[in-house]
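User: quick one - fold this with 2-acetamido-2-deoxy-beta-D-glucopyranose bound?
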Amino acid sequence: MAKMGTSSRVAAAIVAVLGFVLSLAVVCNGGKTSSFVRKVEKTVDMPLDSDVFKVPPGYNAPQQVHITQGDQLGKAVIVSWVTVEEPGSNTVLYWSAYSKKQKSEGKVTTYKFYNYTSGYIHHTTIRNLKFNTKYYYVVGIGHTERQFWFITPPEVGPDVPYTFGLIGDLGQSFDSNKTLTHYELNPQKGQAVLFVGDLSYADTYPNHDNVRWDTWGRFTERSVAYQPWIWTAGNHEIDFAPEIDETKPFKPYTHRYHVPYKASGSTAPFWYSIKRASAYIIVLSSYSAYGKYTPQYKWLEQELPKVNRSETPWLIVLMHSPWYNSYNYHYMEGETMRVMYEPWFVKYKVDVVFAGHVHAYERSERISNVAYNIVNGICIPVKDQSAPVYITIGDGGNLEGLATNMTEPQPAYSAYREASFGHATFDIKNRTHAYYGWHRNQDGYAVTADSMWFFNRYYHPVDDSTSAQ
Ligand SMILES: *[C@@H]1O[C@H](CO)[C@@H](O)[C@H](O)[C@H]1NC(C)=O
Ligand SMILES: *[C@@H]1O[C@H](CO)[C@@H](O)[C@H](O)[C@H]1NC(C)=O
Ligand SMILES: *[C@@H]1O[C@H](CO)[C@@H](O)[C@H](O)[C@H]1NC(C)=O
Ligand SMILES: *[C@@H]1O[C@H](CO)[C@@H](O)[C@H](O)[C@H]1NC(C)=O
Ligand SMILES: *[C@@H]1O[C@H](CO)[C@@H](O)[C@H](O)[C@H]1NC(C)=O
Ligand SMILES: [Fe+2]
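Assistant: Sure. Structure tokens for the protein plus 2-acetamido-2-deoxy-beta-D-glucopyranose:
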């Protein structure tokens, strides 16, 4: 071996050390894996006779009352409820302090699943509501009437503050009830819930016992009868069970939960968009075809250019299966969809992507992995200020328990991860700033375990990373 001069030896050493540091940075300079230690308890479903599942008294009383946005702008609301004894009325009676009582008519449907027959499921859309107004509404006209209320969102505009709650993979365990209670008692008051999929987990019961869809509807009524939950379909909504001759995917979900998909030009209820206050929310389906030429692909291709950031600065995407997930659960299940759509998310500067599926919490840095083209070897996620932050919030508390096994070391793109149940809020202040906070169920209602100030990617695209620079 040829002799090296002192200076070239030093240079070589520096290069070697630098190379080592760089490779460390690439491989394992991860964010924070929380050291929070929780009591490990089994996650069990609340028994059928639990207080939260109580059937409201009275003949043919409406139960499982729930609302969601009913158009693209927030001037309509879909009101849904179930009656058991007979179909009863489809009428919703509604009024505000400034308007007299009005009526809206809807439709009733039923379905069968194996040996289960549903109650009478009513869906009525109320239209032409005034923005930012409290409405009272009554269902069950003619038999047992029940009254609820909701507040319509402010008119769509760039500086309209609005607070979204985030819940995923809720189920109906004692932990699910804690998550919902923490959401309700969070002083950061959520005005609408962005629900990232996996609702009742009825499909984990023998023959997908659809009674557990009914109990879930009664359990969640205390929130969703008063504020809209924006629905995303998860794998537990598929209910595909050829062994009992149930081969039509999403049958219970589509009968029970309606969404305003036609208003955004979608041809199926699994992908659609809404505007609400200063946010444009795109809901995607991990369990519908998303490859090139498919209906979902064509819809999204036309949808993204329609987003007018001067009108709705905040571009939020919901899906069930996460693209970036460093837990050893559902690992890389979102990868095929990421390959299809991630270049669009970077191009159109999506602010944040919320997903569920993994029963834990994780927040990423702004990263993308769009350079790879099979042959160039550029296959590691890199920091990218045009890319969204990816948040996994599948920690609602369902009976399947927590995902605790993480890939090691924590990848560089993962900013924070923790296996605890909880919920989050996304609190839009104006066109440039939004405060995001994640709450674990073991803490007091006001405690934020992980938080971040989001800087809008269109109006304020400066680095909002929480890691040391
Ligand atoms: C449906 O079938 C299961 C078992 O085959 C049985 O336990 C259950 O009681 C049945 N339910 C109804 C509503 O008939
Ligand atoms: C669910 O939570 C509510 C509100 O905290 C409480 O009143 C109720 O007793 C809880 N039910 C169960 C079964 O844990
Ligand atoms: C985008 O929204 C702004 C604010 O509402 C409006 O002035 C502008 O005309 C819109 N642009 C397009 C292309 O529709
Ligand atoms: C965690 O997951 C990895 C990869 O699937 C597996 O090899 C390992 O045994 C798991 N660890 C535990 C404690 O379950
Ligand atoms: C937007 O909100 C942030 C956070 O509350 C605040 O610091 C900033 O001044 C606001 N911007 C404007 C233009 O009001
Ligand atoms: Fe899931």
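One thing worth noting: The chain has a mean pLDDT of 94.
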